[in-house]
Amino acid sequence: MPAFLVTNDDGVKSPALRALVRELQAIPGANTYVVAPDREWSARGHAITIREPVYADRLDDAEFDCAAWAVSGTPADCVKLGLNELAPESIQMVVSGINLGYNLATDVLYSGTVAAAIEAVLAGKPAMAVSSGRTDGEEGDYRLPARVARTLTSLAAHIPHNPWLLNVNVPDRSAGDIHGVAFTELGGCPYEDRVVVGVDEEGRRCYHLAVDIAPDTEEHGTDLAAVRSGKVSITPLEVLRLTRSDLLEYLLPLATRIERMLQDALREPH
Ligand code: MN
């Protein structure tokens, strides 16, 4: 009996979240619990709420056909709440999505969708972050990426390495146009920053943070290249080992020298 915790960063009203829950509920014997933010948190990363209370409103069963809560906090808050308080049974897997828009390459550093999956791994649970290239909001049909997510949950049950995180991106194409699956690495930064200067209604100078697509960032074997060629991209992400070991090895022999410099600096009169 698999039990899934489902969240997202587009908010509990996202049609793509609904499509995902419908597919997961169709797995025989599956129990799905929805704990999702009551508003959008896209591109706000791994924020958590610790200085104020978080509220969780139980939604009518008719909304999702399973237990569901709308939470006043972030996607990561939702995972903490879902795993530790709201879900009445042990969760096998956290599924975050389906995001309205890709989370490719360096997007994963900003994505609330991926942050929720990372939070799951921190709590010792395997997780999938699933994103779709489709972004037509309320009008969109998200059955295809939802079907992909459902299929991958059965594959994922066999992965022995725990806890793991799969970042999944589904091209915005019809089923017949999907050219298979690619296991990929994250691409390099595909953007160039641009700041657009404007003036608000009160005449105050303001800035819009924009990005342009940079040329030549689509290396072979990356998630960027996979979705471009019409494939479902699956990237296993590292969460816990962020230490840069080559730099650590370079720094270690310098420790004595740095320590001496530090002692001299601390002895200097203020
Ligand atoms: Mn989003």
How is this fold's topology laid out?
Layout: E1 3-7, H1 15-25, E2 31-37, E3 56-58, H2 61-64, E4 68-71, H3 75-86, E5 93-100, H4 112-122, E6 127-132, H5 143-156, E7 165-170, E8 181-183, E9 191-199, E10 205-213, H6 223-228, E11 232-236, H7 245-251, H8 255-267
Helix pairs in contact: 1-5, 3-4
The structure holds manganese (II) ion.
Manganese (II) ion (MN) binds at residues 9-10, 42, 99-100, 113.
Present as ligands are: manganese (II) ion
CATH top level is Alpha Beta
Helix run count: 8
Low-confidence runs: none
Distance between the termini: 66 Å
CATH T-level fold name:
Stationary-phase Survival Protein Sure Homolog, Chain: A
Beta-strand residue percentage: 15-25%
Q: Kindly name the structural category.
A: alpha/beta
What is the strand arrangement across the widest sheet? 3-4-2-1-5-6-7-11-8
Number of structurally distinct domains: 1
Overall outline: globular
H and E order: EHEEHEHEHEHEEEEHEHH
Number of strands: 11
Q: Under the CATH scheme, which architecture would be assigned?
A: 3-Layer(aba) Sandwich
Look at the structure and give the mean pLDDT: 94
Largest beta-sheet details: 9 strands, mixed
Q: From the alpha-carbon coordinates, what is the Rg to the nearest angstrom?
A: 21 Å
Question: Percent helix among the residues?
Answer: 25-40%
CATH superfamily: Survival protein SurE-like phosphatase/nucleotidase
